[in-house]
Request: fold
Amino acid sequence: MALHNPSNVPTAHERDELHFDNAFPADGGGADVNLNGSASHLYEDHHTAAHLRANGSANGTADGPQVRARRNVLNDAATLINAGGLGHAQVSSHTTATDSGPPTSEEISSALRAYERAFLPNQPKSLSGISLRAFLLGLVLSLSSTLSLYLAYNGHTVWRAPFFLASLCVFHFLEFYTTALTNTVSAGVSSFLLSSNGSAYTIAHTVAFVECILIHSFWPYSFLPPSLHTTLLTSGILLIILGQTIRAIAMIQAGRNFSHLVAHTKRSEHQLVTSGLYSVLRHPSYFGYFWWAIGTQLACGNVVSLAGYVGVLWLFFARRIKGEEQLLVKFFGQEYVGFRERTWVGIPGIR
Reply:
């Protein structure tokens, strides 16, 4: 579900009070809800000055320096999944300036310098960072696709491992491209989602890639009858195409209202968007990512990772959707209740 903002006013990522961090894609996934306005977008996706990280560090005592707590990636992953990527609320110390008349030339110059700095190296909208990531994704996509075709032509079932890499490259490229296309203000380095989905995301794909190599290098066709492999492979590829297409269309239809961060404020001009995919699916981007991810594991022929993906993604989205919809009922009341009753999620067991 997305929100429609008829105006082009700046939004929460630029100036608001309350933010939540940690998206799976998965955010993978990504949220279909943006309660803050037109210009915000995601997770890694699009940060601006008021963005607060929910991943904390331990502070030292008043008499000593601050000490950063050592993070455990497995604990981080478990926390992210159990919370559905909703994170913990933190109130920003950033406040909106009161109206004190027209801005001075010095204020305008300062604002322009701040805007320009965002495009410099190591900044949120770094042009060099964007071009480098796009180049690397294209390079890996080309190499992995070529290797996959070569191995498949020569009868090696391990072709599925580079095919998995190619699918990941397409996914991450489209995350940036669809954002830049329809939510240009929010597009930045993080829109690729290459490093902002948390340790759970990285661990899951790494394990799946390694499992695929091991299975098809040492035990091809050992777990299932050969007759089932073609069926599962075909089903997996179809789910990859379906899931990726639905997710991309959902992001495009939501436009500047799409956000991977779950924001907890609502502005008076916001309206529910219930057209297009959203007339059938309440969270089409979640639907798309869930089935895309399942499809990759069917195509890979993985067993352990398939079970893991199903369990972890189901738990993640079940809790994330529940948390989001509690907010939406609070904000829109019976309007959202009615919308929820006539639409579906499309993930088994999640109503």
